[in-house]
Automatic annotation (TrEMBL):
Organism lineage string: Eukaryota, Metazoa, Chordata, Craniata, Vertebrata
Location (main, coarse): mitochondrion
Signal among keywords: no
Protein name as annotated: Isocitrate dehydrogenase [NAD] subunit, mitochondrial
Species for this entry: Mastacembelus armatus (zig-zag eel)
A Pfam family: Iso_dh
Subunit structure: Heterooligomer of subunits alpha (IDH3A), beta (IDH3B), and gamma (IDH3G) in the apparent ratio of 2:1:1. The heterodimer containing one IDH3A and one IDH3B subunit and the heterodimer containing one IDH3A and one IDH3G subunit assemble into a heterotetramer (which contains two subunits of IDH3A, one of IDH3B and one of IDH3G) and further into the heterooctamer.
Length: 387
């Protein structure tokens, strides 16, 4: 099934009903149905060097990317970065630069990106560069991994949940206008096609990763048509995955339940705005925005970034940013490229430094600098895996 058009007939238009095909796929062994989750990476070869597009973004993004490059260099990781500086707040914005970034991403298929900050003031165009990148690459699925870090204690320990967000429609559609003076109308777009697509992605992800439950987050009790369509689409897709438990929860109750008892959740799937809010709330459960990795997928491309997107402008140049989230995102990128050894090496080194507790940045209660943390990760690259 093509995620770019999930309702199209497969195999060049063969006359197979969508329901029958999905039922066949859902009943297959995990290794087969799981292959539908996200774009495929090329096989890793001993002599291969992978090209990856790098967009540092704003705020502490450039400092975090410097950390990634230093760790990759120290670990002899076979990745070559094509770096582009794109910003809406630093006079580095132009449609030409945006097209250069898009061309690189389309050629390389894989990118790592910092937050491109969106100004709050209106300057004549509603769609931000972040939004344009998602739309033009059709990066419909944002995946955020919320995991407790070994050795770092929070109110809720041993957390392991995944947030999947549809990020090409919803409230973030850049469709606003002033109907009469002093009255703004902002349109929320929900479609059956994209709702079913993100629901199927969530169930495919749960199948591939051996997870047992998918929870749809909504506000269908109030937005009966828009969120009602999203909820209906999730329920329809859920019927095709009888081995995965399906539940739904209203967004406001979900926020409370995440704070009180997050262990009840496994995989959560939701529309755009709710995902943006829940990403940040969940990040706070395990240490904050500096420790949660994420990525965005289309049918063809994968873009790796921090799970909670903040530029942290107040930390620029102070050498205090926590590179954990970006380094873990980079490790996930290596796994996507089938560089499993290098991925595990980076991930283990980061987690080992945190578990040891000697080098921690300020957001985790320590006094270490960004440079201190990166140096400690480099020193731990070749050690044994974290238990």
């Amino acid at each position: 099934i093509n995620y770019a058009n999930p309702d199209s007939a497969p195999y060049g238009g063969a006359s197979v009903s969508l329901l029958a095909l999905w039922q066949q796929l859902a009943s297959r062994p995990l290794t087969l149905s799981a292959s539908l989750c996200g774009p495929e990476a090329p096989p890793a070869r001993a002599d291969a060097t992978f090209k990856v597009t790098m967009v540092p973004g704003d705020g502490v993004g450039p400092e975090l990317m410097t950390a990634v490059k230093e760790v990759f260099k120290s670990g002899d990781i076979p990745v070559e970065f094509e770096e582009f500086h794109l910003s809406e707040v630093q006079n580095m914005a132009s449609e030409e630069k945006l097209e250069q970034v898009l061309t690189s991403m389309k050629n390389n298929k894989v990118a790592i990106k910092g937050k491109i900050h969106t100004p709050m003031e209106f300057k004549g165009e509603l769609a931000s560069y972040e939004m344009k990148l998602r739309r033009k690459l059709d990066l419909f699925a944002n995946v955020v991994h919320v995991n407790s870090l070994p050795g770092y204690s929070t109110r809720h320990n041993n957390l392991d949940l995944v947030i999947i967000r549809e990020q090409t429609e919803g409230e973030y559609s850049a469709l606003e206008h002033e109907s009469v003076t002093g009255v703004i109308e902002s349109l929320k777009i929900i479609t059956r096609k994209k709702s079913r697509r993100i629901a199927k992605f969530a169930f495919d992800y749960a199948t591939k990763k051996g997870r047992s439950k998918v929870t749809a987050v909504h506000k269908a009790n109030i937005m009966k048509l828009g969120d009602g369509l999203f909820l209906q689409s999730c329920a329809e897709v859920a019927q095709l995955y009888p081995k995965i438990k399906y539940e739904n929860i209203i967004i406001d109750n979900c926020c409370m339940q995440l704070v009180q008892n997050p262990y009840q959740f496994d995989v959560l799937v939701m529309p755009n705005l709710y995902g943006n809010i829940i990403d940040n709330l969940a990040a706070g459960l395990v240490g904050g925005a500096g420790v949660v990795p994420g990525e965005s997928y289309s049918a063809e491309y994968a873009v790796f970034e921090t799970g909670a997107r903040h530029p942290f402008a107040q930390a620029v140049g102070r050498n205090i940013a926590n590179p954990t989230a970006m380094l873990l995102s980079a490790a996930n990128m290596l796994r996507h490229l089938n560089l499993e050894y290098h991925s595990q090496m980076v991930s283990d080194a980061v987690k080992r430094v945190i578990k040891q507790g000697k080098v921690r940045t300020r957001d985790l209660g320590g006094y270490s600098t960004t440079g201190d943390f990166v140096h400690a990760v480099v020193e731990n690259l070749r050690h044994r895996p974290v238990s």
